[in-house]
Write a structure and sequence with these properties.
mainly beta, 4-stranded mixed sheet, single chain, 5-stranded mixed sheet
Length: 128
Amino acid sequence: MAEGTLIVRVTTSRAQIPIDGATVTLTRPAPGGGTELVAVRFTDESGKTPPITLAAPDASESRAPEPGQPFALVDVEVWHPDYAGVLVENVQVFPGQKTLQDVDLIPLEEFPPSFSGTEVFDLPQQNL
């Protein structure tokens, strides 16, 4: 098993203003079903989490002719009390690579008072 690295960058105003103190939660499907907590990190003044090292399949698995998944999948949920939450599903982390996942949050004041949801993005897997 190899390792890859994930950094989450959280911003607002179309990626112009970094958000300090956002909670970033990484989860993945558990082997027996359900969800497994991988990591919880907080963004710094640059809006970034520290690098998060994740287990990923060996790069050699992507070179074999049989179908396989040469990357690890994680879900990234971002929360801050002043912004609408965001869930990015199926973020791909490749072995030996640094993945940067951008998340742009929208201030709650821009939503109607009845809004209480989390915006969900499901990333399609790459056809490798």
